Protein backbone atom coordinates (compact mmCIF):
# COMPACT_ATOMS: atom_id res chain seq x y z
CA UNK A 1 0.00 0.00 0.00
CA UNK A 2 1.50 3.32 -1.03
CA UNK A 3 0.93 6.12 1.37
CA UNK A 4 1.63 9.64 0.17
CA UNK A 5 2.53 12.31 2.62
CA UNK A 6 1.96 15.62 0.89
CA UNK A 7 3.54 18.69 2.29
CA UNK A 8 2.12 21.42 0.13
CA UNK A 9 3.43 24.92 0.20
CA UNK A 10 1.38 27.42 -1.61
CA UNK A 11 3.41 30.26 -2.96
CA UNK A 12 1.11 33.09 -4.04
CA UNK A 13 2.72 35.24 -6.63
CA UNK A 14 1.08 38.55 -7.20
CA UNK A 15 1.08 39.49 -10.77
CA UNK A 16 1.74 43.17 -11.30
CA UNK A 17 -0.95 43.47 -13.91
CA UNK A 18 -2.22 41.27 -16.63
CA UNK A 19 -1.08 43.89 -19.02
CA UNK A 20 2.46 43.98 -17.58
CA UNK A 21 2.74 40.23 -17.98
CA UNK A 22 1.64 40.55 -21.53
CA UNK A 23 4.06 43.42 -22.07
CA UNK A 24 7.10 41.54 -20.80
CA UNK A 25 9.40 40.17 -23.48
CA UNK A 26 9.25 36.53 -24.16
CA UNK A 27 12.94 36.20 -23.30
CA UNK A 28 12.30 37.50 -19.78
CA UNK A 29 9.70 34.81 -19.23
CA UNK A 30 12.20 32.18 -20.23
CA UNK A 31 15.02 33.67 -18.18
CA UNK A 32 13.98 31.87 -15.00
CA UNK A 33 15.20 28.54 -13.74
CA UNK A 34 14.30 25.59 -16.00
CA UNK A 35 12.92 23.80 -12.95
CA UNK A 36 10.14 26.43 -12.58
CA UNK A 37 9.49 27.37 -16.23
CA UNK A 38 5.85 28.26 -17.02
CA UNK A 39 4.20 26.57 -19.97
CA UNK A 40 1.94 29.17 -21.57
CA UNK A 41 -0.14 26.58 -23.32
CA UNK A 42 -1.18 24.65 -20.23
CA UNK A 43 -0.50 27.19 -17.48
CA UNK A 44 1.50 24.56 -15.58
CA UNK A 45 5.05 24.44 -14.31
CA UNK A 46 7.16 21.51 -15.42
CA UNK A 47 7.61 18.99 -12.56
CA UNK A 48 10.92 19.11 -10.75
CA UNK A 49 12.80 15.79 -10.84
CA UNK A 50 12.61 13.72 -7.66
CA UNK A 51 14.89 14.93 -4.89
CA UNK A 52 17.29 12.15 -4.19
CA UNK A 53 20.29 11.94 -1.91
CA UNK A 54 21.75 9.38 -4.27
CA UNK A 55 20.73 6.81 -6.81
CA UNK A 56 17.92 4.66 -5.35
CA UNK A 57 19.00 1.13 -4.80
CA UNK A 58 20.68 -1.18 -2.39
CA UNK A 59 23.81 0.35 -0.90
CA UNK A 60 26.78 -1.92 -1.39
CA UNK A 61 27.65 -1.94 2.28
CA UNK A 62 24.19 -3.30 3.10
CA UNK A 63 24.54 -6.33 0.82
CA UNK A 64 25.40 -9.83 1.99
CA UNK A 65 27.90 -11.70 -0.14
CA UNK A 66 26.47 -14.98 -1.41
CA UNK A 67 29.93 -16.50 -1.82
CA UNK A 68 31.01 -15.46 1.66
CA UNK A 69 27.86 -16.95 3.19
CA UNK A 70 28.38 -20.18 1.22
CA UNK A 71 32.01 -20.71 2.22
CA UNK A 72 31.46 -19.68 5.85
CA UNK A 73 28.84 -22.41 6.25
CA UNK A 74 30.93 -24.85 4.23
CA UNK A 75 33.67 -24.33 6.81
CA UNK A 76 31.48 -24.14 9.93
CA UNK A 77 27.78 -25.05 9.55
CA UNK A 78 25.56 -22.21 10.74
CA UNK A 79 28.15 -19.45 10.40
CA UNK A 80 26.83 -18.39 6.98
CA UNK A 81 23.28 -18.21 8.35
CA UNK A 82 24.54 -16.09 11.26
CA UNK A 83 26.28 -13.81 8.73
CA UNK A 84 22.98 -13.14 6.93
CA UNK A 85 21.25 -12.51 10.27
CA UNK A 86 19.23 -15.73 10.36
CA UNK A 87 20.11 -16.89 13.85
CA UNK A 88 17.36 -19.52 13.96
CA UNK A 89 18.88 -21.41 11.03
CA UNK A 90 22.36 -20.90 12.51
CA UNK A 91 21.35 -22.50 15.81
CA UNK A 92 19.78 -25.43 13.97
CA UNK A 93 22.86 -26.29 11.90
CA UNK A 94 25.26 -25.75 14.80
CA UNK A 95 23.14 -27.99 17.02
CA UNK A 96 23.03 -30.67 14.32
CA UNK A 97 26.82 -30.56 13.95
CA UNK A 98 27.30 -30.81 17.71
CA UNK A 99 24.96 -33.82 17.89
CA UNK A 100 26.74 -35.56 15.01
CA UNK A 101 30.17 -35.31 16.63
CA UNK A 102 28.80 -36.11 20.08
CA UNK A 103 27.46 -39.36 18.62
CA UNK A 104 30.85 -40.05 17.03
CA UNK A 105 32.67 -39.53 20.34
CA UNK A 106 30.15 -41.74 22.14
CA UNK A 107 30.59 -44.55 19.59
CA UNK A 108 34.36 -44.22 19.85
CA UNK A 109 34.14 -44.51 23.63
CA UNK A 110 31.85 -47.55 23.46
CA UNK A 111 33.91 -49.26 20.77
CA UNK A 112 37.15 -48.87 22.69
CA UNK A 113 35.50 -49.97 25.93
CA UNK A 114 34.13 -53.18 24.39
CA UNK A 115 37.48 -53.82 22.69
CA UNK A 116 39.27 -53.71 26.05
CA UNK A 117 36.59 -55.98 27.45
CA UNK A 118 36.89 -58.71 24.79
CA UNK A 119 40.71 -58.65 24.91
CA UNK A 120 40.66 -59.06 28.66
CA UNK A 121 37.92 -61.70 28.51
CA UNK A 122 39.78 -63.77 25.88
CA UNK A 123 42.95 -63.69 27.97
CA UNK A 124 41.09 -64.85 31.08
CA UNK A 125 38.87 -67.52 29.54
CA UNK A 126 40.85 -68.78 26.53
CA UNK A 127 44.42 -67.97 27.50
CA UNK A 128 45.09 -65.64 24.57
CA UNK A 129 48.02 -63.23 24.59
CA UNK A 130 46.66 -59.90 25.88
CA UNK A 131 49.87 -58.16 24.80
CA UNK A 132 48.82 -58.61 21.17
CA UNK A 133 47.07 -55.53 19.78
CA UNK A 134 46.66 -56.48 16.11
CA UNK A 135 43.06 -56.96 15.03
CA UNK A 136 43.92 -59.98 12.83
CA UNK A 137 44.91 -62.01 15.88
CA UNK A 138 41.61 -61.35 17.66
CA UNK A 139 39.70 -62.04 14.46
CA UNK A 140 41.23 -65.54 14.48
CA UNK A 141 40.33 -65.94 18.16
CA UNK A 142 36.81 -64.97 17.04
CA UNK A 143 36.69 -67.52 14.19
CA UNK A 144 38.54 -70.50 15.65
CA UNK A 145 37.81 -72.27 18.96
CA UNK A 146 41.54 -72.91 19.48
CA UNK A 147 44.88 -72.08 17.90
CA UNK A 148 45.64 -75.75 17.12
CA UNK A 149 42.78 -75.95 14.64
CA UNK A 150 43.87 -72.68 13.10
CA UNK A 151 47.44 -73.92 12.62
CA UNK A 152 46.21 -77.20 11.11
CA UNK A 153 44.13 -75.25 8.61
CA UNK A 154 47.21 -73.30 7.52
CA UNK A 155 49.09 -76.57 6.94
CA UNK A 156 46.16 -77.91 4.93
CA UNK A 157 46.25 -74.86 2.65
CA UNK A 158 50.02 -75.25 2.22
CA UNK A 159 49.66 -78.90 1.20
CA UNK A 160 46.96 -78.00 -1.32
CA UNK A 161 49.09 -75.27 -2.86
CA UNK A 162 52.39 -77.19 -2.84
CA UNK A 163 51.48 -80.91 -2.65
CA UNK A 164 54.97 -82.21 -3.54
CA UNK A 165 57.16 -79.47 -2.11
CA UNK A 166 57.60 -79.66 1.69
CA UNK A 167 60.06 -76.75 1.63
CA UNK A 168 57.51 -74.48 -0.02
CA UNK A 169 54.92 -75.63 2.48
CA UNK A 170 57.23 -74.67 5.32
CA UNK A 171 57.84 -71.24 3.85
CA UNK A 172 54.10 -70.72 3.35
CA UNK A 173 53.19 -71.39 6.99
CA UNK A 174 56.29 -69.78 8.53
CA UNK A 175 54.67 -66.41 9.25
CA UNK A 176 51.12 -67.72 9.70
CA UNK A 177 51.37 -70.19 12.59
CA UNK A 178 50.88 -69.18 16.21
CA UNK A 179 53.41 -70.28 18.80
CA UNK A 180 52.58 -71.40 22.32
CA UNK A 181 52.87 -67.77 23.52
CA UNK A 182 49.96 -66.77 21.31
CA UNK A 183 47.92 -69.96 21.68
CA UNK A 184 44.29 -69.95 22.84
CA UNK A 185 41.56 -72.50 23.46
CA UNK A 186 37.91 -71.92 24.30
CA UNK A 187 36.80 -74.59 26.74
CA UNK A 188 33.16 -73.54 26.70
CA UNK A 189 31.14 -72.51 23.68
CA UNK A 190 29.07 -70.10 25.76
CA UNK A 191 32.23 -68.24 26.68
CA UNK A 192 33.35 -68.20 23.06
CA UNK A 193 29.98 -66.82 21.93
CA UNK A 194 30.11 -64.17 24.64
CA UNK A 195 33.52 -63.07 23.37
CA UNK A 196 32.18 -62.99 19.83
CA UNK A 197 29.28 -60.79 20.99
CA UNK A 198 31.64 -58.31 22.62
CA UNK A 199 33.76 -58.12 19.49
CA UNK A 200 30.73 -57.56 17.27
CA UNK A 201 29.52 -54.74 19.53
CA UNK A 202 32.93 -53.09 19.44
CA UNK A 203 33.28 -53.29 15.68
CA UNK A 204 29.76 -52.00 15.07
CA UNK A 205 30.29 -49.04 17.39
CA UNK A 206 33.58 -48.10 15.73
CA UNK A 207 32.03 -48.55 12.30
CA UNK A 208 29.25 -46.10 13.16
CA UNK A 209 31.86 -43.34 13.40
CA UNK A 210 32.07 -43.39 9.60
CA UNK A 211 28.35 -42.55 9.50
CA UNK A 212 29.09 -39.46 11.59
CA UNK A 213 31.68 -38.34 9.03
CA UNK A 214 29.13 -38.73 6.25
CA UNK A 215 26.43 -36.91 8.22
CA UNK A 216 28.85 -34.08 8.98
CA UNK A 217 29.78 -33.64 5.32
CA UNK A 218 26.09 -33.55 4.41
CA UNK A 219 25.38 -31.01 7.14
CA UNK A 220 28.19 -28.76 5.85
CA UNK A 221 26.84 -28.89 2.29
CA UNK A 222 23.23 -28.28 3.30
CA UNK A 223 24.23 -25.35 5.48
CA UNK A 224 26.34 -23.82 2.69
CA UNK A 225 23.54 -24.04 0.11
CA UNK A 226 21.01 -22.72 2.60
CA UNK A 227 23.25 -19.78 3.57
CA UNK A 228 23.69 -18.78 -0.09
CA UNK A 229 19.94 -18.97 -0.60
CA UNK A 230 19.28 -16.82 2.46
CA UNK A 231 21.88 -14.27 1.33
CA UNK A 232 20.10 -13.87 -2.03
CA UNK A 233 16.76 -13.47 -0.26
CA UNK A 234 18.26 -10.93 2.15
CA UNK A 235 19.59 -8.83 -0.74
CA UNK A 236 16.27 -8.89 -2.57
CA UNK A 237 14.35 -7.81 0.51
CA UNK A 238 16.86 -5.06 1.31
CA UNK A 239 16.74 -3.84 -2.29
CA UNK A 240 12.95 -3.59 -2.20
CA UNK A 241 13.02 -1.58 1.02
CA UNK A 242 15.71 0.77 -0.29
CA UNK A 243 13.98 1.38 -3.60
CA UNK A 244 10.60 2.05 -2.01
CA UNK A 245 11.74 4.27 0.85
CA UNK A 246 12.73 7.65 -0.66
CA UNK A 247 11.45 11.23 -1.00
CA UNK A 248 10.74 13.14 -4.19
CA UNK A 249 9.66 16.70 -4.98
CA UNK A 250 7.05 17.73 -7.50
CA UNK A 251 6.37 21.30 -8.57
CA UNK A 252 3.12 22.12 -10.41
CA UNK A 253 1.26 25.26 -11.41
CA UNK A 254 -2.43 25.07 -12.23
CA UNK A 255 -3.03 28.83 -12.38
CA UNK A 256 -0.67 31.64 -13.45
CA UNK A 257 -0.61 33.11 -9.95
CA UNK A 258 -0.16 29.78 -8.03
CA UNK A 259 2.76 27.32 -7.71
CA UNK A 260 2.30 24.08 -5.75
CA UNK A 261 5.32 22.34 -4.21
CA UNK A 262 4.67 18.70 -3.21
CA UNK A 263 6.94 16.34 -1.24
CA UNK A 264 6.10 12.65 -1.68
CA UNK A 265 7.54 9.62 0.08
CA UNK A 266 7.01 5.99 -0.90
CA UNK A 267 7.28 3.21 1.67
Characterization of this structure:
With 267 residues, the protein is mainly alpha-helical. It folds into two domains: 7-54 and 246-266, no CATH class; 61-241, no CATH class. Helices cover 57% and strands 11% of the residues. It is built from nine helices and five strands. The strands form two sheets. The protein has a three-stranded antiparallel sheet with strand order 1-5-4. Strands 2-3 form a two-stranded antiparallel ribbon. The relative contact order is 0.20.
Q: Concise description?
A:
With 267 residues, the protein is mostly helical.
List keywords for this structure.
11% strand, mainly alpha, disordered N terminus, 267 residues, two-stranded antiparallel sheet, 5 strands, single chain, 9 helices, three-stranded antiparallel beta sheet, rod-shaped
Q: Please tally the β strands and state the result.
A: 5
Q: Give me the strand/helix succession.
A: EHHEEHHHHHHHEE
Radius of gyration: 44 Å
Uncertain runs? 1-58
Whole-number mean pLDDT: 79
Secondary structure blueprint with pairings:
Elements: E1 7-12, H1 18-23, H2 26-29, E2 38-39, E3 44-45, H3 66-75, H4 79-83, H5 87-125, H6 135-143, H7 147-161, H8 166-174, H9 189-244, E4 246-255, E5 258-266
Antiparallel strand pairs: 1-5, 2-3, 4-5
